[in-house]
Design goal:
This protein is mainly beta. The protein is about 5% helix and about 45% strand. It has two helices and 13 strands; from the N terminus they run βββαββββββαββββ. It has a five-stranded mixed β-sheet. Strand 7 and strand 8 form a beta hairpin. The longest helix has 6 residues. The termini are far apart.
Length: about 200
Amino acid sequence: SPAMAQDEPVSTGTEIVVTAQQREQNIQDVPVAVTALNAQQLESAGVADIRALQTLSPSINLNSSQTESGGTTMRIRGVGTTGNNPGLESAVGVFIDGVYISRPAAALGELLDIQQVEILRGPQGTLFGRNTSAGALTITTRRPDLQDFGTFGNMTIGGGEFGALLSSQVGLNIPIIEDTLGIRIAAAGRVEKSSD
């Protein structure tokens, strides 16, 4: 029998919206090499902090040479600042909700209540300013829901021959003025005990 034309086009998936050019756009309209990861993808892969992002995007690499606070370097596509001198500025810019984080080590905390993580590969100085010659990592947290009150929480307990781990996250969303003002609070804690 002959095939009939469809009235509506078939959708191949959901639209991925990124802010790689400092405004919300469909990822297919952005002329930048970008990897966008949502909260569900991060949770499914067990990504708790930015050190584990390379499991989902092999183009990003994070190394700590001496101490994490002083000698953390980030590279995208193998390009980044080398050395652990605290006077050197990173070639990969880290932005949390649009705010520049001057040292990658300052962003080593847990990825808590995240909406999306974007890894922008290649020079981004035109839109993001200096210190983005290798690329940029933008982290967007969830906005408050202005309609509904809500809470969330989870706990992870693990153990083995190398030690024990207890990790927990809690959050609270409170709409204050409907469709105008709301607040969202989240906290995380982690306790690790080595077997030594």
